[in-house]
Specification:
The chain is an alpha/beta fold. The protein is 40% helix and 14% strand. The longest helix is centred in the middle third of the chain and has 20 residues.
Length: 392
Amino acid sequence: MEYFFEAHKLLVNAGGVKIVRGLYHEIDWNARVIGIKGFRGVGKTTFLLNFIREKYGDSRDCLYVNLNDFYFSKRRIFSFADEFYKRGGKVLVLDQIHKYPDWSNELRQCYDELPGLQLIFSSSPVLRIFEGNDNLKDIAKIYHLEGLSFREFLNYRSGSNFEIISLDDILVRHKEIVPDIIQNVRPLAYFPEYLKSGYYPYFIKNPEFYGESLLRHVNLALEIDVTYLNQIELKYLPKLRKLLQLIGAQVPFSPNVSKLSAEIETSRATVLNYLRYLKNARLINLLFENGTNGQLQKPEVVYLQNTNLLHIIAPDNINNRNQRTTFFYNQVGYQHSVKSAKLLDFKVDGQYEFVVGGKYTQTEGENCFAAADMIETGEGNTIPLWLFGFLY
């Protein structure tokens, strides 16, 4: 136990670069069980350590442990938590919980038998916490740490402190909001860098190896998260990789499932399952028709999950149209319902329709809007595309 207290103290006192994430203020930190899901390298560990620094410092009330440690190949989580609790511990932070077998039963036992202990854990986005699992259904609050929003990236790069802006405010008050931003910083000067290498925080330490870092994490997500956590045999990994490559080469596109199944030599049902797995892994986004739940249907359009993935998976398929629509769906879809629209590109929250385009993009209608690239300020229902990066 002392070894972990010492390791915890070193990590907490190490400091380092801090990016304030919008998710921090959305979490109910008083909940007994809190889960933070996120893609590899998206910053889950840093996020947890920043929470510990801010609330507990190196107090022994709180303990951070990484379940990658070989110690937990022989020690049960409950046994460890029980000892920590008896030593006066109040908050146990368990990083990488998906690496530990029988994790949900262990957490449930901790919850039931250690009533004064708070449990905070991180996991792969693929981990099924509630699906087919009643252990944590009514006791855990689960949150997703996405990649950096354009706002978070801009704050870090420019030393600014811009606040989150709601969708309603963007739609109604964008002409009032934008001048307060551009008098301090020129967002379009940072926008191309964000689209290429600003979504994941790898750029902080090794910007020159950003592409290599992202490619490595994509491969690890396929090799471990998607296959292992979905109980897919490794012999099928080449099919998943080929499917992702085919998607990247064509996005955004309406998938021909029969053609995809022929190209990767598997069934239509398996292709639909693979698409769902890749979406859950935060590698692609699926756009469904308005009014459908998208569980078993063929998606209307497939996108990569963010623009940075375009640059390492499909560098030959990068164009303005692709980047614009991928950015819009990525940033707006985090907290809002995004479906396909009959005449325009997207329908948001069942009522607002958007066309996403270039500088001269315009639209008409009370609930129809244009998200236009390469404009600093908008007019009427034409809104700067970059401003939708301030939603979280």
